[in-house]
Amino acid sequence: MSVLxxxxxxxxxxxxxxxxxxxVAKAHKINIPTMCFLEGLTPWGGCRICVVDxxxxxxxxSSCTTxxxxxxxxxxxxxxxxxxxxxxxxxxxxxxxxxxxxxxSNGHCxxxxxxxxxKMDHVRLPYLNQNMPMDSTHEHFGLDQDRCILxxxxxxxxxxxxxxxxxxxxxxxxxxxxxxxLGTPWGESDSCTSCGKCVQVCPxxxxxxxxxxxxxxxxxxNFLEHLLQMRGx
Amino acid sequence: MNLDELNxxxxxxxxxxxxxxxxxxxxxxASCKSLKSDQIKDAMREKMDEKCQVKGVGCLxxxxxxxxxxxxxxxxxxxxxxxxxxxxVETLFNAxxxxxxxxxxxxxxxxxxxxxxxxxxLENSGEIDPxxxxxxxxxxxxxxxxxxxxxxxPEEVVREMMDSGLRxxxxxxxxxxxxxxxxxxARSDLKYVICNADEGDPGAxxxxxxxxxxxxxxxxxxxxxxxxxxxxxxxxxVRAEYPLAIERLKRAIRKARxxxxxxxxxSGTSFNFEVDIRLGAGAFVCGEETALIxxxxxxxxxxxxxxxxxxxxxxxxxxxxxxxxxxxxxIAPILRKGGAWYASIxxxxxxxxxxxxxxxxxENTGLIEVPMGFKLRDIIFDIGxxxxxxxxxxxxxxxGPSGGCIPEDLLDLHxxxxxxxxxxxxMGSGGMIIMDETSKMVEVARYFMEFCKSESCGKCTxxxxxxxxxxxxxxxxxKGTGTEADLSLLEELCDMVGQTSLCGLGQTAPNPVLxxxxxxxxxxxxxxxxxxxxxxxx
Lengths: 233, 538
Ligand SMILES: Cc1cc2nc3c(=O)[nH]c(=O)nc-3n(C[C@H](O)[C@H](O)[C@H](O)COP(=O)(O)O)c2cc1C
Description:
Chain A is α+β, with helices and mostly antiparallel strands.
């Protein structure tokens, strides 16, 4: 680990080499929108919303996975980047079935928040209407694949924090989907400890507590940060 | 094994290979083998007397005329028979052992297809029996490895590679010497060398032919690389769809180990190197280096963002050198003859030769090797024999799903990494699909997008979802129901998916669309303005 200097949005900042662009931006109150990223979990770099321009790179890089280097020149916001991010959101909306008005997470949904933040007022892409299955076999929780944006936070929290490795991604391309215990219904999973961490970190109404009506599902995504603090990490 | 022992094997094998009256070489690489050439070989072996040598050899190149059988009765006169069938064995027997003229279709060896190639990678293809290590040794096999181990330091090998100007043949064209230097400098107790043999581009079969025809060449190249970068373990990642290549590689590794070219204290030095094979399960994305590494580690074959590059953080977190099959196939000749020799072939920035797989609407489908800087028109019309059935040439697709279509008026370009990129395509791994006037370019773009859509791993949003929408739009346009708005959305998606995707698959997926838009935009326009019949059946 070494100390270095870089430029973000014209501002010279100090950082250490084990930090990512996103870490450094956050520390300096520069907002980079994220979706699959969650403090406390290994960065995934999948959603691509946090892409930023780095001088010398042939195309934008995901700020959550790219480590800072000496003399790096980063630009976090340009018209182009904003239009890319908006298009990514449109893609996520068109891929699933995100009908907010009937969703338990309505009003407490990170996908919804992002759309508001980025002023995405309509989706130009046709909806794919994939008709993904639901799994309500678990006693306390439910999984609605239609509302999954494949951020894999559930997969990561289950493996990295809970150590149960219940969740995984199956299928590929647009057929990718979350499975528990190699495809066994969640309620019959041997590995699931019913800890509920996956529900808490899920950014949308895909993984939910049972028994909630519309608007009632509120999640505590930040519990990981507390956990890390308690562990002194 | 030392150099004297190696030379002894070489001389002995040379003598043996010259001790017959007549020689028959039957191509037993995949294409000819699929036409039962191995059975023809066995039948011949049974029939011929002991004064005739019957040998199964690797790819002779002209796959469309297979099965190919080469017969040499007088030392200097080789005759190549094409489309040989099982019932021809008798005739061939009379031709060789009784020296009667055989009335079988002959394939002229004086035609441009054979005359105008320059072979380095394929120098032994069609010459040696890929299952006999002594045959490889006879052709100077393993000379480079022993020379390097006994006379060169690792840095000198890297220097030689730098001098050669060789660039990666897996698609990106990254300078091989530079990559080796990076891994050489990385500090670690353990380093790996990986050979990428996942060859997944539609229409590409260069790597397969090399593995099936001359597997020891890859092992020697990898061992030299391992010595140069300080690695002690190697993996060859081959797609499971190449069973013959896998079988030959396995045998070659076993033989190389028993002769002491692999294992501990190779050639009496302190250098240790072991090679294992890992099989890919048919995902195109697993050819991408970070996904390939994940797959070897037993994980889901998904890429991770670079940086960090495998040269710093690779297999199991260790510095890893990953090169393509054809890249490794160039190593032994470079170290035998010197980097300067290699650099004297080709263009200023693209050195050496390149193997191309000719496919599609072309007379001579098969495998060719030409120096960099060769004119594209000569590849297609001279070596390739042009478009069959009197039809007109329309475009050539290079670089697979990451590449583009090059139209007639650019055919005079001299093939190199730079020139192809300028033309809106890429060299890629060397697949060339030739299209005639009946080809519909929107349909071509739709085909490649369908490929990318179904091969997307699903990790990143732009590639996972973007390829679906791009495909749907292309599908609509091809069917005659697309609109102007569709076309402008398509162009926006091309830019966005290319710029924001996580790995090369998504980053280059728009290329076939962009290049067909660049050169054949009128076909899109005509379909949208309903001036043309739909390009697919509804
Ligand atoms: C989607 C995708 C597929 C790829 N497939 C292959 C492949 O089949 N074989 C290969 O050698 N390289 C492939 N590559 C390139 C590799 O990532 C890597 O650049 C290459 O193996 C490096 O070797 P080289 O420097 O010798 O070219 C692929 C890249 C992408 C993005």
